[in-house]
């Protein structure tokens, strides 16, 4: 059966609140990043997908043609420090397209409307993220195990799928032997053979459909997401059979969150006095105001 047929037989999540604030759930596009030196980048393609307990992140200089060694993508556990109000991520070496951590600082977040402002604690940058998802299916599947059917060997890999309405993100790490190769090379001077291994770490996203609009893996560009060959293990686990490197592998996913119809946040609260101020001054303040995604 396909994934959506399987979901029809699963109960929705009874509790969707996790370790992070609910306003972080969804699919976010980075509108801009401003650095301490006064420079601002509004062109790099950056997307952040957030499930209940894990994140998928993709960063490309341009949709097609970003050098292989400059692509960024990862999947990691999301951690929240309620005392300091800081968000951070636990990313294993094999859970990262790159072979080093590019973003070591936690995030100080502030939500305004459909925007999440992310401040680095050192004030080296501030990022402006915009919610892309509105309502619909909210699904997070986290990869728990990978079995090579031919060798009956369990592999150390990471991955996951997040669907937020019409936005989708999928991540699958490299085969262990390929990850070992990447961890020992200089990605900037890699050979053509090594480049093929490097970009076998896939992070792909779809915007408004089921085809991969952006991807770290050139061969996956514009390809459809694979939602076939799923099997229900129990109420919180699904298995999918796929080919990796020409061999059948069984991927076991744990359901992180499953809400058939979820409304993602696009507005935030304010005081009654502030709302009245906005209403009274709307002829000036709202004259050019539009929702910016």
Characterization of this structure:
With 293 residues, this protein is mainly beta. It has one domain (3-263): Lipocalin, CATH 2.40.128. It contains 5 helices and 18 strands. The strands form 2 sheets. Strands 10, 11, 12, 13, 14, 15, 16, 17 and 18 form a 9-stranded antiparallel sheet that branches. An 8-stranded antiparallel beta barrel has the order 1-3-4-5-6-7-8-9. It starts with a helix and ends in an 8-residue tail after the last helix. The relative contact order is 0.19. The model has no long low-confidence stretch (mean pLDDT 96).
Order of helices and strands: HEEEEEEEEEEEEEHHEEEEEHH
Count of DSSP E strands? 18
- The CATH first-level class comes to Mainly Beta
CATH architect. name: Beta Barrel
Low-pLDDT segments, ≥5 res:
none
Taking Cα atoms only, what radius of gyration do you get, to the nearest Å?
Answer: 20 Å
Strand content: 35-45%
Helicity level: 10-25%
CATH topology: Lipocalin
Straight-line distance between termini: 35 Å
Number of contiguous helices: 5
Shape by Cα distribution = globular
Sheet with the most strands? Answer: 9 strands, antiparallel
- Average pLDDT for all residues: 96
| Sheet/helix structural class | mainly beta
The structural domain count equals 1
């Amino acid at each position: 059966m396909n994934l959506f047929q399987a979901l029809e037989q699963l109960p929705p999540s009874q509790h969707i609140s996790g370790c992070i604030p609910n306003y972080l759930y969804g699919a976010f596009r980075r509108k801009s990043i401003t650095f301490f030196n006064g420079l601002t980048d509004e062109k790099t393609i950056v997307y952040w997908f957030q499930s209940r307990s894990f994140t998928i992140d993709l960063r490309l200089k341009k949709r097609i043609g970003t050098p292989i060694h400059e692509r960024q993508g990862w999947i990691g556990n999301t951690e929240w420090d309620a005392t300091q109000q800081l968000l951070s991520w636990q990313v294993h070496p094999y859970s990262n397209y790159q072979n080093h951590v590019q973003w070591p600082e936690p995030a100080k977040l502030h939500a305004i409307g459909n925007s999440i402002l992310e401040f680095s604690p050192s004030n080296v940058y501030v990022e402006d993220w915009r919610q892309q998802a509105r309502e619909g299916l909210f699904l997070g599947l986290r990869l728990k195990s990978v079995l090579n059917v031919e060798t009956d060997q369990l592999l150390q890999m990471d991955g996951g799928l997040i669907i937020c309405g019409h936005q989708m993100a999928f991540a699958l790490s490299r085969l262990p032997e390929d990850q070992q190769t990447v961890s020992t090379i200089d990605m900037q001077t890699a050979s053509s053979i090594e480049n093929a291994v490097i970009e076998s770490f896939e992070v792909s996203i779809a915007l408004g459909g089921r085809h991969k609009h952006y991807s770290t893996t050139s061969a996956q560009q514009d390809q459809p997401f694979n939602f076939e060959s799923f099997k229900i293990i129990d109420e919180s686990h699904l298995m999918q059979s796929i080919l990796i490197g020409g061999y059948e592998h069984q991927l076991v996913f744990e359901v992180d969150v499953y809400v058939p119809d979820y409304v993602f946040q696009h507005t935030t609260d304010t005081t009654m006095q502030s709302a009245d101020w906005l209403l009274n001054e709307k002829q000036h303040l709202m004259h050019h105001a539009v929702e910016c995604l």
